Recover the amino acids of this structure.
RNA sequence: GGGGCAAUGGUGUAAUCGGUAGCACGACAGAUUCUGAUUCUGUUAGUCGGGGUUCAAGUCCCUGUUGCCCUACCA
């Protein structure tokens, strides 16, 4: 047996993902500073402001900011705004809001790659002077054709060996705006025969006579992502430059650029370490920004923050919490394996959070009227009785509120069956159920309209069950039992409301994946779920849902969230007004009855 | 015909020097319950294939297979 000096009573050390292990090793070896100094860890989140952030970005934010937090290092927020054609201020604003909402705290000001354009330009001139870059006047087509392919080497540009002075002059004139878009580029002089296509003299700058959302018209050339990105990280002193798997083949290029700048240089510039991990790929969701933009532009959804969208703003509007994002990010792990992640994990995470935090309320989505026929036999027929309802049985500190009961109430249409099976624990002719917090009632009759729809149910109540309590034992000592408890809302004080029942936007587990027999006609739009949002306009709410009750604590983001008993978790939509309440369903409760009924 | 990366239950992930394959979600059973929720208990099921080294292999070596990425003046 091996030496087992571990104490079984000691909690097992938390497992570390492969990135944490790298950081641990770097700190131990003193790679970035004094050995053991954890505060040297510097990470960042570098979005391009060309769309709204989605749940995959949320994971990256959690990973990067979480690492900095865990080690006591720093986390920065930087926009990668190197392409003026696609980027807009609206996206900058939404992204900042999303990162804040998630709870990630960045160091100092928000940064922009465009702030470093001058530095990039100087370093590019330096590379030209060293004979490591050149201005190429080939057309885009020629450049593409001369690049070769994965098995064939490319051929050198005829401009590759032009004198540095000539390139320097041309580069200055490119910057000055003397040339047309696409007329020439600055290329790194690496190796046109490299098996890594990224090293076949990649383009560093292109002529783009375009207006930039921050630098205006000062530039006529813009750096390519591959040239800029590693330099941005270098300038900001990023130690661990975390990105997704598809950039693995780019890492040698980023290393080459830094080495090229540092060649013959007195004080070398900082050389970040890039680490790639597999992006989050949740089921039933698409995360391509292009596709998401298409959904918005073609009005398949109402906007980037439509509650069906996998964007952070959409999921927030749907009711998901920052905590649920963080635990989802943690649950999905950090690896280099490109799998897919069950969206059920996100739903489990938000249920878990909301179960402890969300006050309970009663709401009837598809109301059917119930008349208590013997209400007048035990007192004034018009009387209203008050009952105490706890806000959260799992959290006694949440207090309670009052619900009121009278002769007429509403229950859920689903909670009554004319001819129920034995295992149906709800209402049916002759059956008795508990109305939560109120009384036990027995169905004596029901009324149908000409179309055969049930329009009204008649019940008697048992005054001995006041508050929903069990009735006293009978003469033989037996206590009557009831199998089911259902929710209800008093007809006399019910508040009308609109409820949006949100379901997954796509019906396919992998909506972006074309079927095998696709011959080109397929589109991810084919997988759109026609029932992704059902709007219920005649829901009945208990009055305590109309506004926040005094006993209720406010949510950090100001969004009111509740559990509607037996239905699910819901939050108030931003369309909601005092006179027209609108709620979104975040997620249903787990429902083993519905699951078995479906079998 | 090239280069890079990856492979552990249904899904996602752990396993420190080569030493009991663990956790979460799900599924299934049962208990509790004024939410068919929650909670609790139990069950289920896994190291991509083939060789090799070793007392001992998810882990080391050889070899094969499968999947993903790479030929924008996008990021």
């Amino acid at each position: 047996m091996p030496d087992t000096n571990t104490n079984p009573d000691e909690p097992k050390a938390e497992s570390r993902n492969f990135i944490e292990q790298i950081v641990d090793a770097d700190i131990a070896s003193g790679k970035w500073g004094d050995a053991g100094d954890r505060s040297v860890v510097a990470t960042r989140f570098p979005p391009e402001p060309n769309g709204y952030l989605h749940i995959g970005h949320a994971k990256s934010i959690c990973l990067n900011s979480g690492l900095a937090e865990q080690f006591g290092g720093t986390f920065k927020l930087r926009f990668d705004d190197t392409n003026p054609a696609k980027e807009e201020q609206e996206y900058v604003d939404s992204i900042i809001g999303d990162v804040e909402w998630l709870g990630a705290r960045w160091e100092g000001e928000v940064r922009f790659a465009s702030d470093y354009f001058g530095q990039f330009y100087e370093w590019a001139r330096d590379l030209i002077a060293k004979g490591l870059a050149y201005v190429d006047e080939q057309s885009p087509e020629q450049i593409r054709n001369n690049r070769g392919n994965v098995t064939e080497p490319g051929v050198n540009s005829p401009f590759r060996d032009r004198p540095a002075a000539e390139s320097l002059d041309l580069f200055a004139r490119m910057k000055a705006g003397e040339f047309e878009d696409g007329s020439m580029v600055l290329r790194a002089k690496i190796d046109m025969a490299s098996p890594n296509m990224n090293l076949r003299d990649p383009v560093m700058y292109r002529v783009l006579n375009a207006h930039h959302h921050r630098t205006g018209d000062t530039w006529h050339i813009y750096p390519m992502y591959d040239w800029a990105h590693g330099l941005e990280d270098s300038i900001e002193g990023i130690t661990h430059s975390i990105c997704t798997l598809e950039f693995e083949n780019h890492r040698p290029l980023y290393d080459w650029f830094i080495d090229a700048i540092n060649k013959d240089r007195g004080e070398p510039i900082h050389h970040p370490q890039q680490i790639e991990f597999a992006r989050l790929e949740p089921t039933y969701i698409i995360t391509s920004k292009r596709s998401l933009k298409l959904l918005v532009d073609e009005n398949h959804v109402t906007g980037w923050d439509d509650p069906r969208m996998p964007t952070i703003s959409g999921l927030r509007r749907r009711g998901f919490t920052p905590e649920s994002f963080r635990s989802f990010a943690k649950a999905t792990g950090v690896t280099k394996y490109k799998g897919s992640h069950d969206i059920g994990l996100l739903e489990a995470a938000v249920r878990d959070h909301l179960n402890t935090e969300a006050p309970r309320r009663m709401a009837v989505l598809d109301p059917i009227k119930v008349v208590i026929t013997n209400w007048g036999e035990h007192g004034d027929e018009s009387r209203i009785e008050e009952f105490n309802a706890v806000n959260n049985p799992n959290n006694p500190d949440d207090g309670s509120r009052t619900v009121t009961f009278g002769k007429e109430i509403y229950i859920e249409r689903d909670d009554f069956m004319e001819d129920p099976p034995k295992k149906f624990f709800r209402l049916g002719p002759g059956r008795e159920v508990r109305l939560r917090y109120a009384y036990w009632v027995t169905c004596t009759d029901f009324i149908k309209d000409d179309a055969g729809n049930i329009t009204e149910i008649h019940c008697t109540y048992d005054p001995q069950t006041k508050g929903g309590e069990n009735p006293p034992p009978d003469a033989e000592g037996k206590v009557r039992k009831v199998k089911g408890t259902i929710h209800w809302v008093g007809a006399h004080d019910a508040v009308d409301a609109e409820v949006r029942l949100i379901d997954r936007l796509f019906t396919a587990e992998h909506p972006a994946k074309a079927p095998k027999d696709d011959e080109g006609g397929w589109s991810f739009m084919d997988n759109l779920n026609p029932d992704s949002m059902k709007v219920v306009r005649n829901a009945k709410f208990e009055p305590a849902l109309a506004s926040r009750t005094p006993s209720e604590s406010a949510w950090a983001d100001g969004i009111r969230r509740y559990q509607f008993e037996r239905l699910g978790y819901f939050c108030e939509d931003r369309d909601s007004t005092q006179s027209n309440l609108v709620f979104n369903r975040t997620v249903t409760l787990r429902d083993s009855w519905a699951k078995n009924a479906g079998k």
Chain A has a mean pLDDT of 94. Residues 55-71 of chain A form the longest helix (17 residues). The radius of gyration of chain A is 32 Å. Chain A is about 25% helix and 20% strand.
